[in-house]
Design a protein that fits this description.
With about 160 residues, the protein is α/β, with parallel strands linked by helices. It contains four helices and six strands.
Length: about 160
């Protein structure tokens, strides 16, 4: 596997299951991993656009090292139901992941017009768009961050990453 693909979890410890999911995907696909994991008693949600690679040397090195990235996030919007939202600026990769998730029976939306603007991961300062080929922001409801759906999500993302070799 080319470790020039990466997996990120910027809100680990705050968005339940995201860091565990990112770590599992990275281990199974030999991808590079960047995770920020907060202590359980610290609940500060720093928006992704405020993660600055010029201020965080580790983030800067990670984004320069990888060609593309999957950034794992959690959301709570009951009106959306239980669906994975695929944002970020690498739309081709988002559509590929959509197919992989669907093959695992996991409902997903990759059409940006159907994803709330705040969950699209389209801003140029969002680290998911930092690598040369940008990446996919994978937003998951809490129900998909539980152990059973996680296995299908891990399989889908790992399959896409391994297929990139």
């Amino acid at each position: 596997m080319d470790a020039r693909v990466g997996v990120m979890a910027l809100h680990g410890g705050l968005e339940f299951g995201t860091s565990r999911l990112a770590k599992s995907i990275a281990q199974q696909s030999a991808a590079s991993l960047y995770a920020v994991v907060q202590a359980s008693d610290f609940a500060w949600h720093l928006p992704s656009t405020q993660y600055d690679p010029t201020v965080s040397p580790n983030l800067g090195r990670f984004l320069r090292h990888v060609r593309t990235v999957f950034s794992i996030h959690g959301y709570h919007r009951p009106e959306l139901g239980d669906v994975a939202l695929l944002g970020g600026n690498n739309r081709s990769l988002a559509h590929t992941l959509h197919g992989a998730l669907s093959s695992q029976g996991i409902p997903a939306i990759s059409d940006l017009g159907r994803i709330p603007k705040a969950l699209r991961g389209q801003h140029s300062r969002n680290p998911v768009n930092g690598p040369v080929e940008a990446g996919v922001q994978l937003e998951l409801p809490r129900s998909m961050r539980q152990p059973v759906p996680l296995s299908g999500i891990v399989a889908a993302v790992t399959g896409v990453l391994v297929g990139m070799v």
